[in-house]
Specification:
By secondary structure, the protein is mainly beta. It contains two helices and 14 strands; from the N terminus they run E-E-E-E-E-E-E-E-E-E-E-E-E-E-H-H.
Length: 196
């Protein structure tokens, strides 16, 4: 593994895939985790990467990520919401440990195959998952060490920026947004949500 640093992020590369290993603790606000770093797709967020980043208020994780490590967002005391994409198959232990302001967690797809037993330790939040998704069994709808209210969300799955919902964010999406802004076309609710 080779270690790199790009702007706020430290990461390693293995087999052509990037794992974020640390961040500048001054990172703040609403964060969208990058899809690539150094030209490599970001597929994992390593253990304790964002731990104690108290300036964070919300996080959007890209579709490239499949694994969220142990304690990744632990002690992020001002984190209020996070969206977990349908590609995530592992959510580590203590991922949101002591995130005292966390109120909304949205899973966009299937239940991760692995969710750490105390992923939401000391958290009181509403966690949503897609309506009609049968992978969210009673076994998955646990408290994980917190006070969790499970609710079904919209039956529309969308990814931030993927306006035409083709699974890719590209020039076609940008063109649709620009045409909407110029009032050349109208948009339905899913388009507007994906463009937000």
């Amino acid at each position: 593994n080779v270690c790199y640093n790009v702007r706020y992020y430290d990461f390693t590369v293995s087999n052509g895939k990037a794992t974020i290993t640390d961040v500048d603790r001054s990172i703040r606000g609403d964060i969208v985790v990058p899809t690539t770093l150094g030209g490599y797709p970001v597929t994992a967020i390593g253990d304790s990467t964002f731990s104690s980043c108290n300036g964070l208020t919300s996080i959007k994780i890209p579709l490239t990520v499949t694994s969220i490590g142990n304690g990744v967002f632990s002690w992020c005391e001002n984190l209020t919401e996070i969206t977990i994409p349908k590609t995530v198959t592992v959510l580590g232990s203590g991922a949101f440990l002591n995130c005292s302001s966390l109120k909304n967690v949205a899973f966009e797809g299937d239940a991760p195959a692995e969710i750490g037993a105390d992923a939401f330790q000391n958290v009181s939040a509403t966690v949503t998952y897609p309506q009609g998704n049968t992978t969210w069994t009673e076994e998955k709808l646990q408290s994980y060490g917190g006070s969790i209210t499970w609710e079904t969300g919209s039956d529309h799955e969308f990814s931030l920026g993927d306006v035409n919902q083709d699974g890719k964010i590209n020039a076609m999406d940008a063109t649709r947004i620009l045409r909407y802004a110029a009032k050349l076309i109208t948009a339905d609710k899913v388009d507007l949500n994906a463009a937000d």
